[in-house]
Design brief:
Length: 112
């Protein structure tokens, strides 16, 4: 998930999710951006803590559930945000990144 845009309807887990996200951001292994269908203050808190403590930021963007559902798995997107001005998500030339399953299949073929 590192360096990829993570899109999900809502957060999962408990209040420790914020510290896990903050630590991922600190280590440089977090998603490049997070797209949510429902507000999740715990996830936002993790991003805020990382920005304050480590000076590292990732955008968190809200879409509707139908908009998230319309995103194809592996679709290459760009997320741009400006504090206080909102964010945009744009598909990149309708290109597509390999899904995790396709990447695993490719690795298996390479190992043979």
């Amino acid at each position: 998930m590192a360096g990829r845009v993570l899109a999900m309807h809502s957060g999962r887990g408990s209040s420790s999710s914020s510290s896990v996200l903050a630590e991922q951001i600190r280590l440089g292994v977090s998603p490049a951006a997070i797209v949510l269908g429902e507000a999740d203050p715990i996830i936002v808190l993790g991003a805020i803590v990382a920005a304050e403590l480590y000076g590292k930021q990732i955008p968190i963007v809200m879409l509707t559930i139908p908009e998230i559902d319309s995103l194809a798995d592996g679709l290459a997107v760009e997320v741009a945000s400006t504090v206080g001005k909102g964010a945009t998500i744009q598909a990149l030339k309708a290109s597509r990144l390999a899904s995790a399953a396709e990447m695993a299949h490719t690795r298996e073929d390479t190992m043979r």
